[in-house]
Amino acid sequence: MSVQYQSLAELAALAEEQGEPISALVLRQQAEQLEISEEEVYERMASTYRVMGECIEPGCDPGLRSTSGLTGGSAAKMRAVSEGGKSLTGSVISGALYRALAVSELNASMGRIVAAPTAGSCGILPAAVLTMQAERDLSERECVMALFTASAVGMVIANNACLAGAQGGCQAECGSASAMAAAAIVELAGGSPKMITHAVAIALKNILGLVCDPVAGLVEIPCIKRNASGVAGAFVAAEMALAGIRSAIPADEVIWAMKKVGDSMPQSLRETAEGGLAATPTGQRLHKQVFG
Fold this sequence. Notes:
The chain is built from 14 helices and no strands. By secondary structure, it is mainly α. The chain starts with 7 loop residues before the first helix and ends with a helix.
């Protein structure tokens, strides 16, 4: 079996040819590459998933504040709305929102998080999978396997574009995470490998061109709220793909476009805190508030 993680189309075709989900194919390939058992590879990913889950409660602490003092407490507010039955969008989206905020705010407070694929986008994939588990009563094994599919998507993006905001803007961080989350959601909902590629394409298209402009150079403003919008976008993309809606532009071409857009971004919009929201009067004031 040859899995090079260079093309999502090839990955989906191979999975369909084998008659199995992408996750099973990736798990087997990783075990062969690492020369360990599939169960050992699975347990490593399961450990990662458990850490993701352990972020939610401390991340929802109403008194949680980042080390800069700029952020914290948003997850608790969103959770109260979600669990109080007052959400405009229902328990799925509101649940995903508070979980994404929780992981991101815990990251800003120097808590233990999982970069998925980066620290700046750490809340999107955990929120998507944990919410699916809660809403669909899924087993831990199903959720862990979905992370293998998400990881494969991340590897294809990394091999053909980038995952760093400093290189490709926030589209490379929250965009990639949203695409990975959309892939996981589709697999957890019983979608086909081909549907996964369309979900990835839709998620990336909807966030294409997003700049990286952290206020005061910290992964807080607007990063934390972008994690919430990123997971919402993942559910939107997955919902459409599962309905049979196809992306007119194939996923591999969308990834190519993302790279070209990232390469075209000026340096001021690639994590330097010199442009975008970081350059606004309030952004500058907050910078002085933190650093003097």
